[in-house]
Every structure is written in C-alpha cells, then in structure tokens.
TrEMBL record:
Residues 120-238 form the CdaR GGDEF-like domain. It comes from the Bacteria. It comes from Streptomyces griseus subsp. griseus (strain JCM 4626 / CBS 651.72 / NBRC 13350 / KCC S-0626 / ISP 5235). Belongs to the CdaR family. This is PucR family transcriptional regulator.
Amino acid sequence: MAELRIPEETLGNYGHILGEVALTGRRLTRDELEARRALGRAAADAGHQLRALVTMHLAQTREAWPRGAAGNSPATTDAVLAAVEQAVDAFAEGFERAQRLTVRREEAARREFIDDLLYGRSDLVRLAERATRFGLRLSRAHAVAVASGPEAYTETDAVPRSVEAALLTRFSGRKILLTTKDGRIVCIAPGSQPDVLRYFAKQAHAATDGGQVAVGRPHKGPGGVVHSYDEALEALDLADRMGMDEPVLYASDLMVYPVLTRDRQAMSDLVRSELGPLQKARGGAEPLLNTLAVYFDAGCVAAETARRLALSVRALTYRLERIHQLTGSDPSDPMHRYSLQTAVIGARLLDWPAKEL
C-alpha cells in the first residue's frame, strides 16, 4: 500500500518514454537521464522509499509494455528492457546521491550539536530544543561516561561501533547518545538509568583492551551534560596522576581530591613542609615518595608494601626509617600518618617533585 501513496508524477514521463522506445528502439537521451536523476533526488527529499519507487517503475513498465505481435519482437523487447534499465538506474543514482547528501548533513548537524553540548556553547534554550532531535530531554538529569583506550577513536572506527551495537541491542528504545570526542568514546544517558552507563563501561573496557572508563555524576539542565562530562574527564586525569588502575572510576567517589586541591597554595605549603626534605635523599625525593604512596595504598602493612615494591621487609623498613629521619614524621605513627598521606596525595595531584611548587 505504501507505493500507492506516492504521486504518479514522481516518475515523470516514464511511461511515455517507454512507448517511444517501443516504436523507435532508441536509447534515452542525456537530458532524459538527467531528468530521471533529478526526479530521484526529489523523491529522496520527499521521504519516499527506494524499494517502493522501483516497484512503481515496474508497475508502469507493465502498463506501458508494447502489445501485439510486432511490438513483442526480440528487438523491441531488448530496446524496452534497456530503456527500463537506463531509466531506473539514473533514477536510483539521483535518489542515492540525495540520500548521501542528507546523511552528510545529518552527520554535520549531529557533530555540531555534540560539540556545542560538551563544550557548553550555544544558547542553552536553543540547545535544549536541538537536543530533542537526537533523543535527549535536557530538562532532565543526564550523566556522561568517557572511555579512553590505547589509541584515539573516531565514530567510524570498529571499537566505538561495536560498543554502540552492544548498547543498542541491550537497551533498544532508550534515549542514549554515543559519540567520540578528542579520541575518547563518550556515552550520554539519562541520570535515572545508571545501568546504561555501567553496561557502557563494561563494554568499552573490553573493546578498548582494558581501557579506563570514568563516569560523571548526573546533573539537570542543558548545562548538566557538560558538567558531568567535565567530571568524567577530570576523573581520568586524576587517575593518570594518582596512578589509579581501576577499570571504572566514578566522579562521586573521588570528590575528596578536588576538595584537597581547592586551596592550591595551602596544599603546596603542606607538600613542601612535609615532603620537601625528601629531596635531600640520594636519588632525590621520587623513590621515597613512591614508597610512601605504596605503603599507604597497602593499608600501611609492611609485608604487602614490600611485596608490591619487590623489596625485602628489611629494605622497606630502612626506607621508612630514612623518611622519618628526613621529614621528622614517622609513617607508622597514626599521629603523623594523616599529614604524610595527605601530603603524598597533594604531591601526586600537583605533580611534585617533577614540577616546582
């Protein structure tokens, strides 16, 4: 029934051309072929389906097919079939060109929207209106997950496409937007559906051969997406600086770190005061700073710390004593431990001692 709703003028003078071909045996002219391409482009722009249009061509071919003994000669049949092939091919070529142009325009509009959305550009009211075209209702809370891997990805690469296919199979009908930005895979989902981002994290971690995924907190409004996106990026950056190797990071679990660096000057003073003396050690501060970091990560258990550092417990004890001698703070003393551990975290956040404070 779909092809019956297509106006007959969509095919132009197709039937008349076939009638002339049956009488003369001629081929379609250049102008006629170009006219067929133009009709194909117009049909695509009108939203018709190519399958229905081809069916319509075949129906008109049957109607216009030459009748009578002379008209059914092999030469006439060959000429008409050649004309049908020329006409349908030119029409389909125009149709496909228009579709490719439409796809490119849609891709450009989608990329522009994503850039505006993740960078917080454009008028927020207008941004919210544009979002409905891509299945997002920005008046509600949304959360963003960002996956990084060993290489930079684009939307056409196999890795993001496999992740997207898995999401669409699992969550068909959900309002999900998956894209790439600055070489990372980005997933935007309603904040009320944390299962989507958990599943995205699982799929992205596997598809990127162990890449890391960070999930921002849900936030409302057009500016909420960029806020959540920034949180996810900051979590990835924090993981890199702090040496965190967890496959999935949640910004909500890492809020203490921004708090610690909110007063950068105070944190710099603490690092210099607590850890500055380590620079006097042979080999500089970095080996002893790393020892402290592993010691605290291991729950201040000497045997586990030694195992992680590939040291003997005796060698580790010597290092801890050396730290005590240089800084005046004993890592094994609960009274000193908090300041030392906070200073170690600050050193990682501020990239000390690689950077001067």
